[in-house]
Amino acid sequence: MDIEEVLKWTDEEVLAKTGKHLDSLQKSILEGVWQHQNYEEIAKNNHRSYDHVKKEAWKLWKLLSDVFGEDVKKSNVCSLLEQAELSNISVVDVDSVQIAVSYGNINICDKNTRSHSPPPTPQTKDRSPIINLTEAPEITNFYDRTTELSTLKQWILEANTRLITIYGLSGIGKSAIALKLIEQIQTEFDYIIWRTLNNLPTLSTLQTELKQFFFQPQQTPLPTIIDYFRTSRCLVIIDDVQNIFKSGQIAGQYLTDYEDYGKFFKQIATSFHYSCLILLCWEKPREITALEAENRPVQTLHLQGLREQAEEILREKRLTDEEKWSELIANYQGHPCWLNIIAATINELFNGSVFHFLAQNDVYLGEIEPLLETHLERLSESEKTVSYWLANQAEAVDISQKPANIELSKSEIWQAIQSLGRRSLVERKEMGERSYFQINSILKQYIQSQKISNYPQ
Fold first, then answer.
1. Is the same domain home to 15 and 93?
2. Would you say the C-alpha torsion 335, 338, 344, 345 has a positive or negative sign?
3. What is the pLDDT of residues 258-308, one digit of tens each?
4. Is 439 helix (H, G, I), strand (E, B) or coil?
5. Are residues 286 and 163 in the same domain?
6. pLDDT (tens digit, 9 = 90+) per residue, 356-372?
7. CATH code: domain of residue 389
8. Are 232 and 214 in contact (CB under 8 A)?
9. Whether residue 8 is found in the same domain as residue 101
């Protein structure tokens, strides 16, 4: 089998699955690897830099992994393509009929016809998607998230990302952006369903609900969710995922009898299909990091506060002193829920004047405090120790030096900071070649203003 046959067949498969041909550099990378060239040789032959070729090769292996449902990389691409072509190409051509061998089955079909997996488009373009959003929250206001929406759409519609986690503080806008996303891409799917874990359904219960939704009377029932994900293009949003994680433990540890959710999420990420599962959560699930490290079709969006878009909130509340709005937004990190609460306070106590409110020189928390407490209640003892320590530092800290007054090992401190980061409670700052860490400024204000017995002094 020569490289021209392999390139032609691979290009056809990529076109059938994505609607796009391989570009010239992608073909050159495949040809070079087939001829046992390294990336430096391929770069030289194509008059490109080594870094550029290496980056494009990584994208190519990810593309081929999605197309063939295998973990494709430089070390195995030749053997995988050869095996895939032999198992799929037509082997006999008699007049206008050919016998095709595909995964052990013999099919008789028209000449030049090949059976492919479902394309990344709904089965019937003129059919409206079947949608169930009965468990989705009602969103009365949506504040501009153009950049984040563009990223999500690119991941789903172009990169065929199978598992997406949107995580961030409560009230930051995770549900709102997911609902706006559905509004913009619903015609690309056959089925769309929103489910919440607020009432702690077991995985078995959730899967039964999903299969009942996907099953239509004119169809044959399928045994697993993955089967439905493969035969139709489905978009599933699971909200309040943090509810199946333990409180008082490092972030992302499952409750007893809920560990199978982690296996389910991994199955969604590692099985070949054109559907997508979106998780909405206060904290990033632990297994997501491992899946991302394996270059799986998995992405994470850490949703943070609004910037100038937050001015819309203050405008809706009819606050005055517009020249001070940016300072107010910065003080409350552009968090839409917090800003709505503070804007109501400014109207009640300062007649809508942002200037007079800021003149008090305090970051007032008021009704934000109960929201912060719900996050703090979930922390492990080591996280509470580290968060109190960080709250009493004037600046971001270098964690390479273990603080003398903390009875935790360096490893425990690092684990706690990593976990706090996955909860959106600790932020990382890059200074030169080093990373420094600081606690969320609003949480810092709260800890400093409270005498909390379970925070070590």
1. yes
2. negative
3. 999 999 999 999 988 999 999 999 999 888 888 888 878 899 999 999 988
4. strand
5. yes
6. 999 987 788 889 999 99
7. 1.10.10.10
8. yes
9. yes
State which of 110, 139, 166 marks the end of a domain.
110
- Residue 101 is predicted with a pLDDT of 31
Query: Do 146 and 234 reside in the same domain of the chain?
Result: yes
- Domain with 320 in it: 308-364
Q: Residue 30 and residue 11: Cα distance in Å, rounded?
A: 11
Q: For residue 381, with 0-12 CB atoms within 10 Å meaning exposed, 13-18 middle and 19 or more buried, which class applies? A: middle
| pLDDT recorded at residue 104 | 32
| 78 pLDDT more than 80 | no
Q: Is the dihedral of CA 232, 233, 238, 244 positive or negative?
A: positive
Write out the two tokens for 101. 């061998």
Residue 95: which pLDDT band, with cuts at 50, 70 and 90? very low
What is the C-alpha separation between 328 and 41, in angstroms, rounded? 55
Tokens 């087939």, residue located: 34
Lookup: tokens for 145: 């998230």
CA distance 304 to 314: 18
Q: Is the pLDDT of residue 1 over 60?
A: no
Per the structure, the count of domains in the chain is: 4
Taking only Cα atoms into account, the Rg of the chain, rounded to an integer number of angstroms, comes to 26
